[in-house]
Amino acid sequence: MMKLLLFTKILILLFLSVHIRAQSTVSVGITLNSVALLKLSPNSNSISFSFSTPATAGGALTTLTNNTKWLNFSSAVVPSASRRITAQISGGTVPNGLQLTVAAGTAVTSTGTVGSSSGTVTLSTSSNTIVNNIGGAYTGSGSNTGYNLTYTLSVSSYQQLRSGTSSFSVTYTLVDN
Amino acid sequence: MLRNLSYYLILLFFFFAEKQKGISQSISIQSGGTSWSVTVPASNITTAGLNYSTNMTSATNQSLMNISTLLTYEVRAKKQDTLWDSRLELYVRKTGDGTPVLLATISPSGVGSYNLLGSSDVSLFSGLLGRTGVPLQYEIRGISVLVPVRTYSTTIVYTFVGLL
């Protein structure tokens, strides 16, 4: 009886210990591409500035501002790379005697390496960086998300100032550093 | 008498075990299904400001697995990364039962749920007796512009564990 019990134990142990293992493999790859998308929200429609006549003779023209536009972007970059957003006047010039600046605020409701604002930048026909060190990030789409832009139009020289209407564009570009 | 019978049984058991190890117990992936690679189109992002919102999913029969065994088994899977970002999640599931030999069983049957693969084995399915052409599907989740741009690769290791 003892031998039978011993034999049963041995058999159970052997049964549990005999596992057969075999392996097979499948390779998996995924390629992520560079992404650089930029837009203005709520739209790219024109902004109009119009100086009002001073209330009294000798009064200054009041500086005008507009902060209705938001910059939205999606950016995917290779490791250690970064991007910046530049702005420049195109399709015309700012009238003599006036100065137009733009300032990107702080990125809101955005995710990732969203960069940082360069503060207030005077716009010209040369490209100027307004947001720098953008990595992999997305801001969300629409108003009230991303970078809010504040335009300020002021008189820089009354001597050069002439009445009239001018139009020009501001071009924003998301470029690699 | 009993002692002799015991010896014979033990010898028979080991003979059977060795035969199974050498001949019948295996898994294999049918040729054509041993790799899956995919490129995520940037056009998946429909407008500036958005992130990717889609997962990349393979064909439902991207890999076909053959299982050869005479008794019970379990198929497990894990991944061994060559270059991988932890934000990318690789899933695998079986989408069918393949063609069984007579009296074979498999659990779960039919379409299984997705299993997230990591560095440790997870159980995909188990069964009794062999079958061919068990279809497997892959899915990568967590695709994001936050993940650096490059090509990532990993290897799924399927392990067959047969129990005599």
What's the alpha carbon Rg of chain A, rounded to whole Å? 32 Å
Which band does the percent of strand residues of chain A land in? over 45%
How many helical stretches of chain B?
A: 1
> What string gives the helices and strands of chain A in order?
HEEEEEEEEEEEE
Mean pLDDT level of chain A? 92
Largest sheet geometry of chain B: 7 strands, antiparallel
| Overall strand count of chain A | 12
The quaternary structure here is: heterodimer
Give the overall form of chain A: rod-shaped
Would you kindly provide a written description of the structure presented here, covering whatever features stand out?
The complex is a heterodimer of chains A (177) and B (164). Chain A has one helix at residues 2-17, and strands at 19-32, 35-41, 64-76, 83-90, 98-104, 111-112, 116-117, 120-122, 128-134, 137-138, 147-155, 169-176. Chain A has 177 residues and is mainly β. Chain A has a domain at 62-158 and 167-176. Chain A is rod-shaped, with a radius of gyration of 32 Å. Chain B contains one helix and twelve strands, in the order αββββββββββββ. Chain B is elongated and about 75 Å long. The model of chain B is unreliable at 13-23 (pLDDT under 50). At the A-B interface, α1, β1, β2, β3 and β6 of A face α1, β1, β2, β11 and β12 of B.
Task: Briefly say what this structure is.
The complex is a heterodimer of chains A (177) and B (164). Chain A has 177 residues and is mainly β.
Layout of secondary structure:
The complex is a heterodimer of chains A (177) and B (164).
Chain A: H1 2-17, E1 19-32, E2 35-41, E3 64-76, E4 83-90, E5 98-104, E6 111-112, E7 116-117, E8 120-122, E9 128-134, E10 137-138, E11 147-155, E12 169-176
Antiparallel strand pairs in A: 2-3, 3-10, 3-11, 4-9, 4-12, 5-8, 5-11, 6-10, 7-9
Chain B: H1 2-24, E1 26-29, E2 35-40, E3 56-57, E4 63-68, E5 72-83, E6 89-94, E7 99-100, E8 105-107, E9 115-116, E10 122-128, E11 131-141, E12 151-163
Antiparallel strand pairs in B: 1-4, 3-11, 4-11, 5-10, 5-12, 6-9, 6-11, 7-11, 8-10
